Amino acid sequence: MYRILLVDDEILVRDAIKENIDWKGIDCELVGDCENGKEAVEFIKKHPVDIVLTDILMPYMDGMELSSFLHDNYPEIVIVIFSGFGEFEYAKKAIKYGVSEYLLKPVTATELTEVIEKMKEKVEQQRLEKTKMDVLAQNSEKYRKNKQMIRSKNIEALVNCTTDVNASIERLEDMGIDISAAAYRVALFDIDLYSGMYQLDTEKQQESALMAFVLFNISDEIVTRENAGIAYQEGSNRVCILFRENWSRNFTVKTKEICLEIQQKTKEVMGFDVSMGIGKWVKKPEELVQSHDMAERTLQYRYLLGGNLLIDMEEQHPVQEIAIDENLSELKEAMKTGQKEQVDQILYDIETAIRQALMEKSRACMYLQQVIRTMDNACEDVSADMDRIREGRDELLRQVTDQKFFEDACKVVQKHTDRIFAILSEMNTSSSERQARLAIDYIQKNYMEPDLSLNSICSYLNISTSYFSTIFKDETGETFTEALIRTRMEKAKELLENTTMKNYEIAEKVGFSDPHYFGISFKKMTGYTPTEYAREKRK
User: Fold this and answer.
1) What is the full DSSP assignment across 94-124?
2) For the segment 388-421, what is each residue's pLDDT rounded down to a tens digit?
């Protein structure tokens, strides 16, 4: 028999549902009906319920608030929402709170009966899962009470220095465990599916502890066979190995081989991936915490590299800084000139450098944010619609930092890149207009170069001089030479007005190798010699 609670503030709706459903025929019992979420909460606290049928809009506590309460406090209860309000926002919240069905009023008796039949199957599945977990939990509890658990607790205390090292060693000796060795190192194993990368509900947390027990058994069997150290559980869901070097200079290689065998055996037996970090060698038991902490830090690399890792910190040398200034400069130019394939390659090179550096997540995200800012600068240089480019910027940056894996964060950046190219393409339906803007930008940045010429700018744009001369004149009303001279003269005027530099120094600053020619050009454009202009403006 399945127990159902009906919640709706309209008494006519409640009466209609009560009278038109053959409850006994579908093996159900309507255990109660409430007119709002507040009444329903009080009822559920006192009576067992399997399925809740609830409206959304109700006084005191609405259907969303009730769903949230049930999600947090009674996750085993199956929720069905029906309402006359079909807005998408309601549906999204319903998904968030684990609502199983979302029906729009009016709901027929046939339709509701079909939904209840489906919900019964879900309740039954949950009952079976609970029975399974209870059996596993009982077996696990037996383990917690045995000698292995005590051993694990004592070794964990030794490795993490949570108790006096000598006292821990004595307790282990009393258990017949001798940890003396020439050197030590700690390996730490974490099941990817149940790691901190994911939010775990209560059931998953219990399941993770049981799977860790299986991982421990596999590890213990292999380490004992190789006489390589001691396997132990750390907390309820991690497994560690205290490796002891007594007999081989090549034991560093051996420890990695053992960890790889455990990883492969776990995948073969249980079908799940395990990430493993191996800390450095230390000489004394009191230094074990250093090896342990180093092994634990490797698990953060799952963000960059994904799961199923095996990292030996004797081989890896993480860094926190990489040089990408040149990549960013190339990225900016490729964006401005519309070279999509080159942009994609540069992004790939930057992403690869970040992965190889094995840096922390916050640092990796910082580099991706630099990439986004560089794209903005490129768009500004070609006079793009920056309001449109920056639309949703806060959400974009949040998405980059919220991703569980670096690969997904890179996909967010790539999607943003594709969007920018689409906007630029839409804006620049006239290629001549775009090339003219790029040419002006190029002049603005390189006017101080004496050898700046029509050939150099055409080489930059990858077009012929004759074609460029035509489109530039059509789009700007000036020839290239006129635009260059005008730009140089404007910069020269700024220097004459605001500095005490000599005329020959200004000539050099604005790209004239011949000060005499600079003076002639300046007077031709302004009607003044540089000296006359400076005297007039500085009065």
Assistant:
1) HHHTT--EEEESS--HHHHHHHHHHHHHHHH
2) 888 888 899 899 988 888 999 999 999 999 988 8
Rounded to an integer, what distance in angstroms lies between the CA atom of residue 24 and that of residue 36?
A: 25
> CB under 8 Å, gap of 24 or more: what pairs does 494-498 form?
496/530, 496/533, 496/534, 496/537, 497/534, 497/537, 497/538
Instruction: State the Rg of the chain over Cα.
Output: 35
| Start-end of H helices in 337-429 | 340-357, 361-381, 386-389, 393-402, 406-427
Residues comprising the chain, all counted = 539
One domain for residues 167 and 308: yes
Q: How far is residue 407's CA from residue 481's CA, in Å, rounded to a whole number?
A: 48
Peptide bond into 106 cis (omega under 30): yes
Residue 229 dihedral angles phi and psi, to the nearest 5°:
160, -150
Of the candidates 427, 443, 462, which is a domain's last residue? 427
- 438 in the same domain as 353: no
Q: Any alpha helices (H) in 145-250, and if so which ranges?
A: 147-160, 165-174, 202-226
Question: Has residue 145 got a pLDDT over 60?
Answer: no
Tokens representing 340 are 């999509």
Check residue 303 and give its pLDDT.
83
Q: Is residue 318 part of a domain?
A: no
Max Cα distance, the chain (Å): 106
**Residues 399/369, Cβ–Cβ less than 8 Å:** no
- The closest of 278, 290, 279, 282 to 160, measured between CA atoms, is 290
What's the predicted TM-score (pTM) here?
Answer: 0.51
Helix/strand/coil for 271? coil
Mapped to the 3 state alphabet, what secondary structure does 405-444 carry? CHHHHHHHHHHHHHHHHHHHHHHCCCHHHHHHHHHHHHHH
Cβ atoms of 473 and 488 within 8 Å: the answer is no
8 A C-beta contact, residue 354 and residue 322: yes
Q: Starting at the earlier edge strand, list the strands of the sheet with 238-245.
A: 229-234, 238-245, 183-191, 274-278, 310-312
Which tokens in the block code for residue 63?
Answer: 């259907």
Distance, CA of 183 to CA of 281 (rounded, Å): 6
36-45, 271-280, 298-307: segment of lowest average pLDDT: 298-307
Assigned domain for 141 exists: no
Question: For residue 200, what pLDDT is reported?
Answer: 47
Q: Are residues 413 and 515 in the same domain?
A: no
